[in-house]
Amino acid sequence: MASPRTLLSIVELGGYPDFAELYQSKGYQVSVANSMRKAMKLVKKLQPDVIVAEFNFQSDFRDRTSSLESLMATVEQLPRPAQVIVFYEAPQRPQLERLLAVFNLFETLSFPVDESALSAALDRAIQENK
Asked: What is this structure's pTM?
């Protein structure tokens, strides 16, 4: 029997619907982290198939746009990198583009997150992980 698909949901700021039911309906075993530090530990431990995270631009960072960059560096070190779906605020798209120039994100979805678009992204992730 194949091992269950795993999804790590990183909810630092939140303020959007809890998509856990959607994730579970797609067959994912869901883990949640409420800080990037905890998320990075879980990424190493779980090696999830999919990661759903928020892009929170942090202008006080001198050499990067957000802590998401640290997470992506960790993800890229995994034997089988996860598909990363990122939620972002539309006005922060220019800063997100800087991250996209360095890291390969599976999908980016702007707030308010369209559940059908997220569902479609999860379906694509399942197909690519087969």
From this structure: 0.92
